[in-house]
Design a protein that fits this description.
One of its GO terms (molecular function) is phosphoenolpyruvate-protein phosphotransferase activity. The protein is of the alpha/beta class. About 45% of the residues lie in helices and about 10% in strands. The structure holds phosphoenolpyruvate and magnesium ion (MG).
């Protein structure tokens, strides 16, 4: 079909000066993998794994998980696949993790906080991921959601390495992780910025709440500055910094994020072609110029306008 033909013909992601920017897919189900390939995904930058756990009274067995991961990984043999361990809590409460009512669930016991109290669930998931890697030959990376500081980072990295994961990272989506990025980057093999939650927490605006939706804008210079801190820390530590929030699928913002230090971008597969084409038009120096203009702006709207005009002025 058309999408498949496009995938076969796609060049790898990169800027006009030859700077490589791998373009990866966000997947929410094992069965999304084929679509991602069709749109030219070079790998997976975020496999959300909640689909395996929702609507259940107990966690799935290692064997069952392995089977689903093998299904998701198979089309990506020899390529990078980043899986995020279970991000339960907030809007996705699970009885077997002992989730109770919370007044502010987005600020509650979610992500790595919940897993840490149920380490057996986390270890089973890591074992299944390693088994699926062995079967399929993907270049597996595993990251933890909602990591806030060095203590949580060290906890996750140690456990994941013990189980046999060789590329361990964090999803940087809590503002404290951005502020502390210089401490966290040397502990991990990669960082992936989650702009959805990073925006929600930076602007103190519940992403599920329509009345504050105007604040849920990753163009906000506060969010861009947090991304810049993570980009700088990643560069200093010599590790890749990805973006896997919705922001990476906005072509102009994708370019700005590269200017802020992102080295790879992951998005809904259907958005890959437009981002690929936008990136190919500009150099790294131009992306950096656009980024500099955006972070100096006072609002999300003016940050976008500043990026756009910086690029139209560049020779
Ligand atoms: C994010 O927070 O940006 C992210 C990628 O994760 P999710 O949208 O699943 O919370
Ligand atoms: Mg998130």
């Amino acid at each position: 079909d058309g999408a498949a033909a496009q995938g076969a013909a796609t060049k790898p992601g990169g800027l006009a000066d030859g700077t490589r920017v791998p373009l990866l897919a966000n997947l929410a189900h094992a069965s999304d993998a084929a679509t991602a390939i069709a749109f030219g995904a070079e790998g997976v930058g975020l496999l959300r794994t909640e689909f395996l756990y929702l609507d259940r009274h107990r966690a799935p067995s290692v064997a069952e998980q392995t089977e689903r991961y093998v299904e998701a990984f198979r089309p990506f043999a020899g390529r990078p696949v980043i899986v995020r361990v279970l991000d339960a809590g907030a809007d996705k409460k699970l009885a077997f993790l002992g989730h109770e009512h919370e007044e502010n669930p987005a600020l509650g016991r979610r992500g790595i906080r919940a897993l840490r109290e149920h380490e057996e669930v986390l270890v089973d998931q890591l074992r299944a991921l390693v088994a699926a890697r062995e079967t399929t030959g993907v270049e597996l990376g595993v990251m933890a959601p909602m990591v806030a500081d060095a203590d949580e980072t060290e906890y996750f990295v140690e456990l994941a390495r013990e189980v046999g994961v060789s590329r361990v990272g964090i999803n940087a989506e809590v503002p404290s992780a951005a502020v502390l990025a210089d401490q966290l980057a040397p502990l991990v093999d990669f960082i992936s910025i989650g702009t959805n939650d990073l925006t929600q927490y930076a602007l103190a605006a519940d992403r599920m709440l329509g009345s504050v939706a105007a604040f849920q804008d990753p163009w906000h210079p506060a969010v861009l500055r947090l991304a810049r801190m993570i980009g700088a820390a990643g560069a200093a530590a010599g590790i890749p910094v990805g973006v896997c929030g919705e922001a990476a699928g906005d072509p102009l913002l994708a370019l700005v994020l590269v200017g802020l230090g992102a080295t790879e971008l992951s998005m809904t597969p259907a958005l890959l072609p437009e981002v690929r084409s936008e990136l190919s038009r500009y150099t790294l120096a131009e992306a950096r110029g656009a980024a500099e203009a955006s972070v100096a702006a006072r609002s999300a709207a003016s940050a976008r306008a500043a990026a756009s005009s910086a690029l139209s002025l560049s020779p």
